[in-house]
Design a protein that fits this description.
This protein is α+β, with helices and mostly antiparallel strands and 227 residues long. Helix content is 31%, strand content 30%. The chain contains five helices and ten strands, in the order ββββααββββααββα.
Length: 227
Amino acid sequence: MTFSICVRERYTDDDGDDQIRYGVAVTTRLPGVGTLCPFASADGAVATQSLVNVELGRKGIAYLADGLAVDDALEALLNADEGKSQRQLHGVDAEGTFAFSGEACNDWYGHVVGENYTVAGNLLTGEDVIEDTAAAYESDAHGDAPLAERLIAALAAGHDAGGDKRTDLQIQSAALQVTNTETADDDPYYNDLRVDASETPIADLRETYETAKEGYEAVVAKYADDP
């Protein structure tokens, strides 16, 4: 399932309380990646890929909600998975990071782990894909732009470095999710977006995000004076 990034960012809300924002973004040369790979909640972000086992993402998020650390949660799931050697699984929670690439994943495959993020990919043109994805995120980590925008920029950097090597597959997809720990979730609903089938998924994801943001702001303005 090509390449993805999971991110944790700490911030202070309007009341001066410490909060955490989580994000995950992915793209691949197959349709519908948003139904398979990215998972995020107020407890963390997880991406499952290569020979995908969707339950690793679903259960990973559930384990984080139960209070398990991300490394303990994801390692336990992998140890119970007979297809572990063909999986890639990575993610972040409030305190830690975790990344795994099984030895039977398809070349090029690998992952990188930063202080607040993880990036992993398989069936790539080379290591530059995940390195450039990571570098693009690091260059503007905790920046002024919304995390969703910066995740899309990170995917674009990986794509520009070569991306998925299966160039004969024209129908591609991309997806992102951003969540936070605030009780009253101030992240608008357009932070959970998918482009399920396109020849230009990252550009389409950016356009979808911008259009959704514009529409959301128009609705907020229209009903701002309602009781």
